[in-house]
Write a structure and sequence with these properties.
Layout: H1 2-14, H2 20-47, H3 54-58, H4 62-67, H5 71-80, H6 92-108, H7 115-128, H8 131-141, H9 146-156, E1 168-172, E2 177-178, E3 182-184, E4 189-191, E5 194-195, E6 198-202, H10 209-212, H11 223-229, H12 234-260, H13 265-276, H14 308-314
Antiparallel strand pairs: 1-6, 2-5, 3-4
Helix pairs in contact: 7-8
Length: about 325
């Protein structure tokens, strides 16, 4: 009798996952048991602000990050993504496992923000300069709202990096790029930002070769060596002349084209701007235009006029 009961229990145990419905019920049961633990793991990640620091993002490793996450969910994703014909959980596939876990965390708690997805959105924003990019990423990959992105960006600039010790090389890019100008409505002024590239290089802190060896080739220069410093070879002189010719040709062609125009675009722009700057208001009732900015009512129909700032927003 005991042997028969044991056989029935074994048969029941072996057949408990025989159909998809039983497997779904088992998954639901396991998920309900791990629900609280998963929520606590997410809260710990939300409270961990160190993951948003620049040093942590630069040294981000999917394997190390997954090792700190809920092991049950991590193992579940690894089993689902297992493929015998591919390298398992390495490189790009390992990163995709981390992204999948991020998606599960964001579905469990809407306040969860993924540090690596936030950094990825920052790269997209630097290229597109669009707030919409951040908002779309936040809905898809839990990268945080635009206000979260701005706070994170400001936090990176709070602590300045110390100037490196030893021999340091600095370089500037002379191709400056002007950003879009905008109107500062507090002071009624136009602001224009100019951006240029800057980079600094330094040796490793333990590399003291510049302190041990003399970097100068000669202690003193003779007259011939001094003369060679200021002597330009014919090849270099030809290259300089060609670059100067190309540069001046563009300026002369543009100046000549502007001079031959009947109306100078810059002068015309200044004249129109000067004449219209004091008469920007218009009446929506009678249609009268170019009303003085100081007028509060329309001179023609005596209709109250909106403030000047409202006209500027419309234009």
């Amino acid at each position: 009798m005991l042997l028969s009961e044991n056989n029935k229990l074994k048969e029941k145990l072996n057949s408990r996952f025989i159909d998809q419905e039983s497997r779904i019920e088992a998954i639901i049961e396991i998920a309900q048991q791990e629900c609280k633990n998963l929520y606590e793991d997410i809260i710990n990640l939300i409270d961990d602000q160190k993951q948003f620091t620049l040093d942590s993002l630069l040294t981000y490793s999917p394997s190390e990050w997954l090792a700190k996450c809920n092991p049950v969910i991590v193992k579940f994703i690894e089993v689902l993504t297992y493929n015998e014909n591919k390298n398992q959980h390495q490189g790009e596939k390992l990163f995709k496992c981390a992204v999948a876990l991020d998606a599960i965390y964001s579905a469990r708690n809407l306040k969860y923000v993924s540090a690596i997805n936030l950094a990825a959105s920052a790269i997209k924003y630097s290229l597109a300069k669009s707030k919409t990019v951040i908002d779309i990423d936040n809905h898809i990959s839990s990268s945080g709202s635009f206000s979260k992105f701005l706070k994170w960006q400001e936090s990176l600039a709070k602590k300045s990096k110390p100037f490196p010790k030893g021999l340091t090389f600095m370089a500037f890019d002379n191709e400056q790029k002007g950003q879009r100008n905008y109107l500062d409505r507090n002071y009624n002024t136009v602001t224009f930002h100019t951006v240029t590239s800057f980079v600094a290089f330094n040796f490793e802190p333990d590399n003291q070769i510049q302190s041990l060896e003399d970097p100068w080739l000669y202690e003193a220069l003779n007259s011939l060596q001094i003369e060679e410093l200021f002597t330009i070879t014919p090849e270099v002189q030809e290259l300089v002349n060609q670059q100067l010719y190309d540069y001046l040709s563009i300026i002369i062609d543009e100046a000549s084209e502007e001079k031959n125009k009947m109306i100078n675009p810059i002068d015309d722009l200044i004249d129109n701007h000067s004449s219209n700057i004091g008469r920007q208001k218009r009446c929506s009732n009678c249609g009268m235009k170019e009303i003085k900015n100081s007028k509060c009512n329309c001179p023609q129909c005596n209709t109250p006029l909106p403030m000047l700032s409202e006209f500027q927003i419309e234009t």
